[in-house]
Task: structure prediction
Amino acid sequence: MKGLFVILACWLAGNCLSIVIDGYLSGNIIGMLLLFILLCTGVVKGDTVRGAAKFLLGTMALFFVPFGVGLIESYGVIMENITAIIVATVISTFGVIVAVGWVFQLLNRRNNG
Result:
């Protein structure tokens, strides 16, 4: 129970900080970073959150059920726009591959040169 409290407290603190910074960064991400920092500094011991973390990871599939239902409910809209979805997916995938390749080459030249 203590582990679940720590995880939820970090999540809540992250959401509060997100509101303070006007939503510039997601509260969930801030909460994960906060928990990570607490674990790295030893403020929170890994054994404290291990049980709760295993439970949450084990039941994670349940968290995706609402999204799956939403996709099924929106099937008609998705099919109407399938061409645009496929084009956007292919273009963005290609763009990410090119960007990562350029960054890799730039960093590789810096390390070798």
About this structure: The mean pLDDT is 90. The two ends are 53 Å apart (CA to CA). The first helix runs from residue 2 to 20. Helices lie at 2-20, 27-41, 46-58, 60-63, 65-73, 75-80, 82-112.
